[in-house]
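User: I'm writing a short methods note and want a consistent example. For non-specific serine/threonine protein kinase, I'll paste the sequence; you return only the structure tokens, no commentary, since I'll be parsing the reply automatically.
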Amino acid sequence: MQRYSPRNDSDLIPSRVIDTATVNSDANAISCVSTTTTTTTTSEIEITEVAKEGEKADPSQFELLSTIGQGSFGKVMLVRKTRGRDAGELFAMKILKKATLKVRDRYRTKAERDILARFRHPFIVRLHYAFQTEGKLYLILDFLPGGDLFNRLSKEIMFTEDDVKFYLAEIALALGHLHSLGIAYRDLKPENVLLDANGHISLTDFGLSKESIEKDGKTYSFCGTVEYMAPEVVNRRGHTVAADWWSLGVLMYEMLTGSLPFHGSNRRETMSLILRAKLTMPRSLSAAAQHLLRALFKRNPSNRLGSSSEDVKQIKAHPFFDSINWDKLYLRQVQPPFKPLCTPSNHTCCFDQEYTRKTPDDSPALPPSATAHELFRGFSYVAPAVLSADKPSDCATSSLQGVEKASIFDDYNMKENLGVGSFSLCKKCVHKKTGAEFAVKIIDKSKRDASEEVDILRRYSHHANIVKLFSVYEDSLNIYLVEELCSGGELLNRIMTLKHFSEREAAAVMLRLANAISYLHSNQVVHRDLKPSNIMYASKTADPDSVRIIDFGFAKQLRAENGLLMTPCYTAQFVAPEVLKKQGYDMNCDVWSLGVLLYTMLSGETPFATSDGDTPQKILKRVGDGKFSLNDAAWNNISEQAKDLVQSLLHVDPSKRLSAKQILIHPWIVHRNSLPTTRLNFPTDPSKLKVTFKRCSHCHHHAKNSLP
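Assistant:
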């Protein structure tokens, strides 16, 4: 018996998306865009993640093969690259007409482009190029031949719970990654979940995504597809990333039953059902499935599964997912329940023939104004994997010397996540033969070249205060660095939780850090990303001797004749002024970051972000001007020698800063054993410090466009 039939026509009309038009069967298109033309008012759109060098793209480099989606704003086409290192590869080309984009839709297009340019994840569609002509914007994305889940839902006879479990698990990992970066997805629905050639999912369409949402922050936008909206979105009382977990519940219910949990005869009735209707669970569902649905369908978002700071960890721990091997799933080593049947001669078999039978064309479009091109200044983008062809130093690692021949999964059992970065994932692992615990840093080869980091760690990780590298593994997707497990936690957590943290202990920590940095600098190595989260304790006792500098992902071996690095790379709050001004910079940048760390250890505050309301622009201006205060209450009982060292390290002129070697002979360090042992009194709640640092970490995106 057919268990699912396509939605009726009324379900496919634009009213399903609030104030917007939906692109039906659109594999890679924005689903929340305006159907009306723009006014004559122009508004410049700030673009981040700007790629300024490498292979440029334009429409002439792509052969149009087929239309796979279309809306009033433009279309999505299957294309083949005809030139360059990726010639012959298939992509999805999203074409947006500038003249049909209202101001809000320009910002949504900008948001999607920026988010996709920021990161890579196995279950999020990848952006390869972005470019524009006078009348159009182009996004070149992965072509995912399996179509979307809506297409599969409308054709499938039955989804088993195991099928649903697989898809939900991959979606959950993608959502968890977005949330870890402060991004709420806000448009989860079957049409935005695509299947690749092997049957794995990819989230697409980030036009409604909202960046910079902290765990305790809210956004009040009313947008999305109404049937998948959480109650707090419908009632406009403000929502967090927890709204995505409600939408996951809607998708789960739909896949398991073939119908939507809350679906009225019109939009108003649907919204009323979401806010008040009691949901009956089908008896055919397992107890675990029913329990998960009830946990996701909590109308009070604070009671919803996934709403705590644990976020996706709560989802992963639910009994419904007990059979999922999350490590193998992330590495795409779990066999999908369905593999698309498309062949090389029929790439579009999983797409609606309403679009695929149309003759593909990219007709000219008139610009909305004479300054249309400036509206999206900096829109062009080339993915790192493409840039690698022209820049060997940045290329994805193909092989490394001295890597282990076995698979890392033969030697180690993977455990819980320890941290997620822009380029890598860090997990705890246990050696199968010895039971010894380690940390493994997993680096996506397509995103970053790990050879510099591996080389530096192999040469210099024997230093007492640098994290130890034990072995290196490699497969077709990733580089695995097996490192010392720092079980004592981050330096910042130490400061926040210690009942007794004194100026003497701060000096002991600074001695170890300066010693390690001095050692690196003597070998012409700069770390370039010193911050609290990259300073850890190897021992749970948090003895100063166990301090370790970790994460050498931004580290460089200086090679230029003048000793200066010329590739700006920084994390806001730890950014030296000369870096912000795009001047050459050398080892004094690390010294600057040590100054920020010392300021924080002594005062419990950051020197350049002084309030919750500070904008990135304000923070970066203070950094550039070298303005900070030593007159607050937190500094009343701090020694004059400590203040002198802070000022010497944070001097705006790099030539007047101390070197790491000079720190070791500063009186505050030399006479550290005579420093006060009384507890440092932080004037504010130290737990807010982490929020400040997290907020500041986003500043570098703004800095790239604010520099002269």
